Backbone:
């Protein structure tokens, strides 16, 4: 299981939305955070989010039993640990 | 979390040394338009040998002040080719570290930010960078003493959940740096635990507050 937390602020909304386009991904909320969960790796295409770099590189709030294996200008990839 | 009363009122003054008061006055007073609001002409005295000095203050808005010390007869200290009038660094010190210490002055609007950009760009100290960060936009230059100065505006107001997240981050950081191998991965794992512990209760309190204020 891959679990990623993202804080719900206007800049992060498209990041959660792009993550949720993957049918394997389920999104719910824990207080003001999106909890983004998948049985598979979670992959987010940065260009699809239109996030500028400062937003992109500060968008992860927490990881549960998961690790970031790619976080660059192209994509973020999170896999189970 | 602290329940102590929080009664401080911002920056009274921050003080830096200068070896070039003429350029400093030109930069802050004449280019940026920060009024001189106070100065002290002090004869060196006391147990140690202390040079005579001028301590002078610029108004940086909000009644906050940026102050300088000029010491008569004092020469800059060695330490390396990088840095500013206060601290010099050898070549091997990375620039991100040197730039980490800087003064950021707030403006309320994009128009105000661009006005200060125009003033700097028309001077010997043009803007070196203009950057949209996460929630602020900033311009940067170095003053005649080599001190990095940022002028910044908020792109939007800070939301209450960002204060929660900041507190969770800092609690996680304090935990992680007490552990064996501080890292971003360890921090994000600890943050996830604190989010699960605290975020629902925070949201409930927030919702109750909103209901009360909407009544």
Residues:
């Amino acid at each position: 299981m891959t679990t990623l937390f993202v804080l719900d602020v206007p800049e992060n909304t498209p990041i959660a939305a792009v993550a949720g386009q993957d049918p394997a991904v389920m999104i719910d909320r824990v207080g003001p955070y999106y909890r983004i969960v998948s049985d598979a790796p979670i992959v987010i295409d940065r260009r699809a989010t239109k996030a500028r770099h400062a937003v992109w590189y500060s968008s992860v709030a927490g990881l549960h039993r998961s690790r970031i294996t790619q976080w660059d200008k192209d994509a973020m990839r999170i896999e189970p640990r | 979390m602290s329940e102590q009363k929080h009664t401080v009122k911002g920056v009274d003054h921050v003080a830096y040394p200068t070896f070039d008061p003429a350029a400093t006055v030109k930069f802050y007073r004449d280019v940026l338009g920060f009024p001189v609001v106070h100065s002290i002409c002090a004869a060196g005295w006391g147990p140690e040998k202390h040079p005579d000095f001028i301590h002078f203050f610029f108004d940086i808005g909000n009644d906050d002040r940026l102050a300088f010390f000029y010491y008569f007869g004092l020469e800059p200290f060695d330490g390396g080719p990088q840095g500013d009038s206060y601290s010099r660094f050898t070549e091997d010190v990375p620039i991100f570290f040197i730039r980490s210490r800087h003064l950021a002055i707030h403006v309320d609007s994009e128009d105000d930010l661009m006005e200060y950009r125009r003033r700097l760009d028309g001077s010997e100290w043009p803007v070196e960078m203009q950057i949209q960060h996460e929630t602020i936009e900033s311009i940067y230059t170095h003053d005649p003493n080599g001190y990095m100065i940022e002028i910044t505006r908020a792109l939007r107001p800070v939301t209450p959940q960002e204060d929660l997240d900041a507190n969770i981050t800092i609690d996680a950081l304090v935990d992680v740096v007490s552990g064996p191998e501080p890292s971003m991965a360890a921090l994000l794992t600890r943050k996830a635990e604190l989010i699960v512990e605290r975020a629902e209760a925070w949201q409930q309190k927030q919702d109750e507050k909103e209901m009360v204020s909407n009544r």
